[in-house]
């Protein structure tokens, strides 16, 4: 272990001891902190019922089954008499899930302002972003695992883009239209499939309403006459909520805005939203290109401008015990690709996605079945990669390659009623999942080449079944046993062989003839977990998982240049199943003045699939021994690997100050990934250590936070360079208040200022393929305002 990492561990341990020492003084303060009510749905199909406050007047349209009605009524009454609304900035810690979950609630989403999921999660413990094109194309990376091992879902269905097929491809889920993000850190394949062997990022919004909207009741006017107020369950004329979200940013001269509408009445709820954002090239602290002096530079990252917009409309119908709803969503994005090649060729991606989603839930009045839920979705995605064929000829601008993804998915889950098995109360949920995907990537450049299209075309079908069992032994001890079996059929075409050296331009027979490939796999996975409540509101957890992953199409069928990674990718149709054996332990505390989460994990991969750089270099049609050409030759290969690491984050409310509460927070994360021969797995995040102070009351929240990333020198033998450390200093102040509707008609307002990278540091992301040519944004200030009507 390097001296820097030892120092980081010592500092992290000292911070933990300091928090423990200060906890006694904090516990002596009786000032309560109202914690946010976080509902997590991503990790498990077993959903715990949450009571929701009633509104008056209202129309009862989803009565609970008869055997649950008394309990539901009591819960609603208790909820209605709950404490005041939770304050901003409280660290959400999830203690009732067997998986390790990071939650980004709505109020933090609004303050953060990340334009992509990768930007949003960039500094969270155990998570970062790929930062290929900051602000446009940044995919979440969890514990050093990315693309083919991290699933991205929206409202229970796959994101449906092409971000797992190329690091330059955007994720068609915009945080501006999202209400909550849940990140399962660690294997999530049991529910979402083998493509989530490293974790899953789940974004939720109200595009398919799952409850009738709630509105504040209008005051009842009696004018002094002896009349009765209307009954609580009397028919309602309907309900309408509108929210606007806007912000401006100095670092990229960016402007974004969105409007969301939720309306309901007569058992029907309707949602509509529209959003858009535009930025110019963003400011950076210094010259961005490490190994290419003399390139044009004007203080901004060349070729980094973005533009995106989207809209959605959906509706749900509510009936006795359930609902069914559907939504259609359009996402469009036009963004430039930074880097020397991107700037020279003026490379940009013009992407469009149309997505249709249907979901529903039914809670029958039955003794055995608690709930039946289903999701159905279809996606039509297409993007054109546009640029100059010849950087010296502006007339050569045009489409260089087109990617398409047509995908359909369906999932149904049945949650059974809990039953007493004497030794434990057992709750079981069954699930079935199926999907079909067709991918193409043709290029108009040299269409007759056997290397045209990278992996064009290919398709795959998948079907799976899974079961989750939760065993409640006592109120303080619970266990989970889960399993999944999946079958994947893939079809594509690859050359019969691709030697290390060839040139198809001069000798088309230097590679083998096109050969159809039809591999199929049957991954099987299982897990067991334990949650134990401890004194002082502590919760301990331990989980063991065995997870198998089927290779993805790009890993099997690739055969050509991949500009995003500066590689000439050669797939391997003989790849086998990748296996991960994982152990994870955690200790958490979600209530009281000290809230924290501590996790450690160890994962052994058998047959870890990766791009192995051979040391040869290539161009569009040829490869040669050694350096000299612009692309590194990469063959998809398998080796055994070990990932291990730890994560910690905490908040400590120290005491009252000026009518509010002030406190300190800190975080730490480390991941170490090596092959079994001791060499390093490429592109792994650095050790990070951070902390800050905050102050909040019922209206205000302010915070200043510093994250230090240590230098990353644990790099691959070929094709990777060391990455310098950095200090990321951010600060924010937010004000939230209720308004009288006479003030522009709004009932609630949130405004704020956020300062990012206040030290204006050169920040390079060690996991990014473009880190030696692309700097993260420099010093910037963002102002935002959200209004609810």
UniProtKB/TrEMBL annotation:
It is a multi-pass membrane protein. One of its GO terms (biological process) is siderophore transmembrane transport. Residues 48-86 are annotated as: Disordered. This is TonB-dependent receptor. Residues 1-28 form the signal peptide. Keywords: Cell outer membrane, Membrane, Receptor, Signal, TonB box, Transmembrane, Transmembrane beta strand, Transport. GO terms for cellular component: cell outer membrane. Belongs to the TonB-dependent receptor family. It comes from Bradyrhizobium uaiense. It is found in: Cell outer membrane. InterPro entries: Beta-barrel_TonB (IPR000531), Beta-barrel_TonB_sf (IPR036942), Plug_dom (IPR012910), Plug_dom_sf (IPR037066), TonB-dep_rcpt-like (IPR039426).
